[in-house]
Amino acid sequence: MLKLTNVSLGYDGHPDTLHNISIEINKAEMLALIGKNGAGKTTLLRGLTGLLPLRSGKITCNDKDLASLSTRERAQMISVVPQAISLPAGYTVYETISHGRTAYLNWYGKLSETDRKIIDHAVALTGLSALTEKEISTLSGGEQQRVILARALVQNAPIMILDEPTSSLDIHYQVALLQLERGICRKEGIAAIFIIHDLNLAARFADRIAILHNGEIRAVGTPSEVLREDLLSEVYDIPVRVLHDPDEGLIIIPRTGIS
Ligand code: ADP
């Protein structure tokens, strides 16, 4: 579905931050992007969303070159759930979600019957039906995160990018959000790429994990292929222990020597 071929990205006046990145992401798949701070995860997202032009290589979505698309067409191809942001106050949940339809609206910006159906579907998928008329600032952090997800969903894009979607949430809402996202990806056939620092959540919710290191993809594969002690200790530059819980599977902990 989404294919990156020999993609290089960098900032003006600097050498490449990422070079020769090649990876494919499939329909209904959740791909976690991990790596140390500064590894280039955000840079890769900027390349995917078109904020940063490619220095070389190609990104295609269903064989369409993303570079040939207008901003509006790209928004219909890739939706983004940004890092914990404060949503603009003064709007209801429904209005906030409807802003995600911008890439489809005509010049006078009126929602059509189709727009409303798509919004209603996203509201139902994210469990927000009882909250649509609430003002956004009256919602809890977990509910707001679901509104941000619904706003991205109404873009009806086959690819969704999530930038540290769980960073501001407690463990209850972290698990709830990733479970919800996983269910939605499966049901709607959306391919999701999510940046995440919590390796245990990546182990649990990603179908595959890609590790960025020194400007390249150091490894990509299933959680058990990638979350190995040797590899994690190398890329995070700290000894890492990987345990196997009979119920939960992989448990990843940094070795601190403190007990
Ligand atoms: P990550 O998201 O994995 O923490 P980033 O993509 O933010 O990593 O950063 C990768 C590298 O690119 C870092 O060395 C960072 O300093 C550099 N970088 C990020 N943004 C800019 C910028 N606007 N201009 C120049 N260098 C940048």
Describe the structure.
The chain starts with a strand and ends in a 5-residue tail after the last strand. The protein has helices at 41-49, 71-75, 93-98, 113-125, 141-153, 171-188, 199-205, 223-226, 229-236, and strands spanning 2-10, 16-25, 30-34, 56-61, 64-65, 78-81, 159-163, 191-195, 208-213, 216-221, 240-245, 249-254. It folds into 2 domains: 1-77 and 159-217, P-loop containing nucleotide triphosphate hydrolases (Rossmann fold); 84-156, no CATH class. The longest helix has 18 residues, at 171-188. The chain is of the alpha/beta class and 259 residues long. It contains 9 helices and 12 strands. The mean pLDDT is 94. It is globular and about 55 Å long. Strands 6-7-8-3-9-10 form a 6-stranded mixed beta sheet, sandwiched between helices. Helix content is 32%, strand content 27%. Bound molecules: adenosine-5'-diphosphate.
- What characteristic shape results from the CA principal axes? globular
Distinct ligands, ions and cofactors found in the model: adenosine-5'-diphosphate
Let me know the largest β-sheet: 6 strands, mixed
Distance between the termini: 46 Å
* CATH T-level fold name of the largest domain: Rossmann fold
How many structural domains?
Answer: 2
Beta fraction of the residues? Answer: 25-35%
- Helix percentage: 25-40%
Q: Which structural class matches the secondary elements?
A: alpha/beta
CA radius of gyration is 19 Å
DSSP E strands, number:
12
Strand order of the largest sheet: 6-7-8-3-9-10
Q: Count of DSSP helices?
A: 9
